[in-house]
Write a structure and sequence with these properties.
The longest helix is centred in the middle third of the chain and has 10 residues. This protein is of the alpha+beta class. β3 and β4 form a beta hairpin. Helix content is 21%, strand content 39%. The protein has one domain.
């Protein structure tokens, strides 16, 4: 399955992942089972964050967490559509991620799978907005936090993408 994803720089020189296909659509809600199935293609892969050279792995728990977390369950409208379609750009979102922040593991249920704590990285992506003629009018830019667990095997795994927010003052025109 091909992906139509590129990395560009905005006017300030910051990288943005441009996802040109709106693969997951829905007037009322997103079919998260389709997103989950799509994410299954990444299981077993690894990607490197350019800024820190951290190697992140994709484990079998990502599709379930990404599509079924409490955060995802609460999403509606544009934010849900943005998270669903961000799944297409995971390799690039990880590559351009910046701002590594550590947080201790304070939850007993994650003692085994996040023994060495959690990390968050910031990343940005853009999705097209179509005009009445069916052509791309502009791109809406979104900020996302990449949640990474540091497991007992000392490897780091992408766990979920959270805090997706549209950057209201920022739209991208290519």
């Amino acid at each position: 399955m091909s992906r139509n994803v590129t990395v560009v720089k905005d006017d300030n020189g910051n990288k943005i992942v441009v996802i040109d296909d709106i693969r997951f659509k829905g007037k009322r809600s997103i079919n998260w089972d389709d997103v989950k199935a799509y994410l299954g293609r990444y299981v077993g892969d690894s990607f490197t964050i350019a800024e820190t050279e951290d190697k992140l792995f994709i484990s079998k728990d990502l599709p379930d967490e990404y599509s079924g977390s409490r955060y995802t369950y609460k999403l509606r409208g544009a934010a849900a559509k943005a998270k669903a379609n961000a799944a297409q750009g995971i390799p690039e979102l990880l590559e351009i991620a910046v701002g590594k922040k550590f947080r201790e593991n304070n939850d007993k249920r994650h003692l085994r799978d996040a023994k060495y704590g959690w990390y968050r990285y910031d990343s940005r992506f853009a999705l097209p907005v179509y005009g009445e003629d069916g052509g791309v009018e502009r791109y809406n830019v979104f900020h996302a936090s990449m949640l990474v667990r540091h497991a007992s095997n000392k490897k780091m795994y992408l766990y979920d993408i959270l805090d997706i927010k549209k950057e209201t003052s920022n739209s991208l025109s290519l």
